[in-house]
Amino acid sequence: MSERMIKYSILGTVILSMGSHFCLIAKVWSYHQSSLDLAAVVSSAQAFDTLIIQEGTYVIDPLIIDKPLTLLGNNYPTLHSKDGDELIVVTADSVNIIGLTFTGVTTSYLKERAAIRIVRSKAFAIEDNKILDCFFGIYLEHAKRGLINNNEIRGTATTEAASGNAIHAWYCDQLTITDNELEGHRDGIYFEFVDQSLIRGNHSHHQLRYGLHFMFSNDDQYLDNNFHHNGAGVAVMFSRRIEMINNRFTYNLGNSSYGLLLKEINDAEVTGNLFDKNTTGIFVEGSNRIKYTKNTFHRNGWAIKFSGGCSANEITYNNFTNNALDMVVSTSLSDNQIHHNYWSDYTGYDLDKNEIGDIPHYPVKLFSYILDLAPEAIVLLRSFFVDILNFSEKVSPVFTPKEVFDASPLINPVK
Predict the structure, then answer these.
(1) pLDDT in tens, 289-340
(2) CA–CA distance, 66 with 103 (Å, rounded to integer)
(3) I want to staple 135 with a disulfide (CB 3.0 to 4.6 A). Which of 59, 118, 164, 279 is the partner?
């Protein structure tokens, strides 16, 4: 049965293949303008058949796939929604959707319409598809052990209220989301109650809100992704045991923008990431036992801002270069470890030539304290007056926290 193949073409031929023997089963008319033919072919197919859809445009009603099947496009045929509704709804295990183009799913304020919806399915694959200007791209609910790989999902969202997410996952486990191109939605990737999953090598940019947004999701990995020019950057909330490694967070700019927001995160690792040209590199609130290691903070407004309830964190072997403010603290960091970081504005010395500064570095400036009280004072950032303020506080600290310092600052950047 695994060798069985149904082939449906514009020329109107359905062929059953069993090994090297072929027999003509039926004649089928072209369904360029018909929503019935494709549904009929899917209905007549047997479990684990492969349906090859030839090049063309097919206007269809929502297509329900309730058996294991593979839908394979030849030269990216287009499935266009007849009435703006969803295109494919999968309710079976072991369904593969490969090489198709999806268009025409319109905005709804009553239903989260998606080009592809996976419902209570497992062992599925969505690969090499193009989803263009659809309300939601791929919507997963109660799905397990699925692969979403190498898809192009592009939207033209203009307002958050009228836009959906490129990839939306709710109550899922063991997802693998890799090498997708995501643009022009509310959120590029959205996770809620999604555990033990991998997000790797994705390019999420120009989203109205977040390049990546996830909540209440544990034991997930986010590796080698590129997030840039998003409305508010990346938000990670109310989750445990998260690994964020070798990602790029760049050009997330605005009054409420940051490269990465961490809120109520525990037992996580933030390693080897680049934070470049963000309003705020990382904003941290209520997050504990996080290791920040070998990250580069370059040309941000604020490199790291700590706000409330952050304890037992470790900040080591990071590069802080040419940021307006390297660290802002509005909470006690007395039980956090800050050591062996490189600070481009460190003015100490290394007499014993061991590449570690002989005097501590205090990264919190008096001006950051003033900004918390009067944000409009930012216009004075590069003024001589602010330089005098920061220098006087450095000589005789009164307002800045004395427990926030790097006792062993590095003389050279971490490689």
Answers:
(1) 999 999 999 999 999 999 888 999 999 999 999 999 999 887 667 789 999 9
(2) 22
(3) 164
